[in-house]
Amino acid sequence: MTEFTPLSAVAGGLLIGLAATALLLFNGRIAGISGLFHGLLHRDRQPWQILFLAGLVVGAGSFHHLFGSDIPQRADFPLVALLGAGFLVGLGTRLGSGCTSGHGVCGIGRRSARSVVATAIFMVTAVLATAVSRHWLGLY
Amino acid sequence: MLRNLSALLAGVVFGIGLALSGMVYPLKVLAFLDVSAAWDPSLALVMLGAVAVTLPAFALVLKRHQPLLATRFYLPRTTDLDARLITGAALFGIGWGIGGYCPGPALAALGIHWQEGLPFLAAVAAGGLVADRLGARH
Q1: A100–B8: do the CB atoms touch at under 8 Å?
Q2: Count of other CB atoms within 10 angstroms of residue A126
Q3: What pLDDT sits at residue B85?
Q4: For A58-85, what is each residue's pLDDT tens digit?
């Protein structure tokens, strides 16, 4: 459906790893996006959390608008599926203390057994959920 | 002040990495997670690229007594593989597999495709609050 883009994938991955390393080296913090996002809703949130997430939005948005992309945007993904998926992502990342970045990139980076297990599990359930939602339910 | 600046810059680089890698586009993500059709293995290389940096670099950084701009490292202390971790990871994967967004790309969508990013993030926040009600760890 989309083309294999090994160069930009590896380069983007290296940048993500570099950014996570910089946050640990300078701030002593783990770049776990779900934890930072959930943290926004709590009273003890700190400016650096908001700034990191704002930087992410600006960095990704600027790159997209400057360089464009061949990958089309979904026009009519059902709102109920979007909300259901988002709810599960919020519930799951809060219960499981992390997502692709916190467990997948940073947790594996510091050789955490919890993160290796979490990453293996969410990769498997993601593949299964995609198979069911696309091929059985006919979602995108 | 410097700490805020370094966090902002790290966030910008992280966001550029997400966009360059294609991970901000749910159809690209789903083309990776959908192993049945014309499989696009790109996102495996994103993960590999990121971990190729963090595996050696985190080990080096954590040899230091403290970070450059803070007094200590803030690392998760939990080490047990409990039901909460496993259930949470499984539910997260299901949500990711349906929508094609994990939290980073969902945030990035605010500046790329807000029509999806905004409702998705609202639902993420709601899910997190429900988890808190269930007594999740902070």
Answers
A1: no
A2: 26
A3: 96
A4: 999 999 999 988 888 888 899 999 999 9
pLDDT over 90, % of chain B: 91
pLDDT tens readout for residues A86-101 = 999 999 999 999 999 9
A 45-104 residues inside an 8 A Cβ radius of B: 47-49, 51-65, 67, 69, 71-74, 77, 79, 81-97, 99-101, 103-104
Two tokens, residue B15: 């966001």
- Estimate the crossing angle of helix B83-99 against helix A79-95, to 10 degrees: 160
Set of chain B residues whose Cβ sits within 8 Å of the Cβ of A111: 55
Residues 6+ apart with CB under 8 A from B97: A125, A126, A127, A128, A129, A130, A131, A133, B30, B33
Q: pTM score, two decimals?
A: 0.96
B118 close contact with A: CB closer than 8 A? no
Q: What is the domain partition of chain A in residue ranges?
A: 6-136
Residues B74-110: tens digit of each pLDDT: 999 988 999 999 999 999 999 999 999 999 999 999 9
Give the dihedral of Cα atoms A35, A29, B46, A116; nearest 10 deg.
-70
Amino acid at A45: R
Q: How many CB atoms lie within 10 A of CB B7?
A: 28
- Mean pLDDT computed over every residue of chain A: 95
Which one, of A98, A99, A34, A105, lies nearest residue B58 by Cα?
Answer: A105
